[in-house]
Amino acid sequence: MGAGEDLVREGDEKMKKSVGAMQASLAGIRTGRASIALVENMKVDYYGTQTVMKQLSALGVPDAKTIEIRPWDKNAIQPIEKAISSSDLKLAPQRQGEVIRLNIPPLTQERRIELGKLAKKLAEEGKVAVRNVRQETNGKLKSAKDQKGMSEDDFRRLTAQVQKLTDQHIAKIDELLAIKEKEIITV
């Protein structure tokens, strides 16, 4: 019985990681407000190595419409500008000395609709990941039942527990999606 509980706990942890990854992806979707989440995990080709933006520079939000990037190495300025320009954010970096500023323009209605669809797609991918963990955990429980002689009652109880966890994590994904959609729609 202890092994079954461990499998359920392991499945819960994997589901939490799936929700966390989906939440991080949603944070990268641009809304009408400035947020360092838009650029902090952006990959920059820095001396031939794909480096995350937050490792190359100090990031800040001086006002609601501006992101400020202060590279620690002035040689990183051009690769950072190139990474931003080639990203799907559709933002134009503006260099002022050794600082790069990104002005966040208001979103057009068409772009809001696109971003809403992207958010829904990311949420669906998160749900699929959670369901895959459920399937994997239930498979492990079934083989534990077959090999270790777990009782049918314990098996049913544990799979019901896994389903309950799955439902909770999917509800969390729906909640995060609703928050993001509200951010995207809000002008």
Overview of the molecule:
The protein folds into 2 domains: 2-27 and 108-185, Orthogonal Bundle (Topoisomerase I, Chain A, domain 4), CATH 1.10.132.20; 36-103, Gyrase A, domain 2 (2-Layer Sandwich), CATH 3.30.1360.40. Helix content is 61%, strand content 16%. The protein is built from 5 helices and 6 strands. It has helices spanning 2-27, 53-56, 77-86, 109-148, 152-185, and strands at residues 43-46, 49-52, 57-63, 66-71, 93-96, 99-103. The strands form 2 sheets. It has a 4-stranded antiparallel sheet with strand order 3-4-6-5.
Instruction: Sketch the topology as an H/E string, one letter per element.
Output: HEEHEEHEEHH
Specify the structural class.
alpha+beta
Work out the helicity level: 55-70%
| Beta-strand fraction estimate | 15-25%
Spatial ordering of strands, largest sheet: 3-4-6-5
Number of helices: 5
Shape: elongated
- Using the CA coordinates, give the radius of gyration: 22 Å
CATH superfamily of the largest domain: Ribosome-recycling factor
Sequence-ordered SSE layout with sheet pairings:
Layout: H1 2-27, E1 43-46, E2 49-52, H2 53-56, E3 57-63, E4 66-71, H3 77-86, E5 93-96, E6 99-103, H4 109-148, H5 152-185
Antiparallel strand pairs: 1-2, 3-4, 4-6, 5-6
Helix pairs in contact: 1-4, 1-5, 4-5
Q: What would a concise description of this structure say?
A:
With about 190 residues, the protein is of the alpha+beta class. It has five helices and six strands. A four-stranded antiparallel sheet has the order 3-4-6-5. A two-stranded antiparallel sheet has the order 1-2.
